[in-house]
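User: What would this chain look like folded?
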Amino acid sequence: MSDQPLLDPKNPSGPVQVRKLKVWVDRDLCIGAATCIAIAPKTFLLDSEAKAIFINTTLEDTDETILDAAKGCPVAAIIIEDENGNRVFPK
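Assistant: Here's the prediction, encoded as structure tokens.
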């Protein structure tokens, strides 16, 4: 794992608040494919268990980029809700 500071060290896989979105990684589903990192490199990194975590530059990626990263996950391990708690992805 990189020395990159985490967005939330107590909850490295979230949930985290990204503007109006609540985003988290289901660590039981995450297989470490790293597609999320390829799409949103300022948001995700893999930890020592090959699970996606949020780094402190998350807010530098756009909401659309984070949503694209979630859609690119082969096992739909990245969950996104809007400010009202409605599931944005996966539906």
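The chain has one domain: 16-84. If you want, I can go into more detail on any region.
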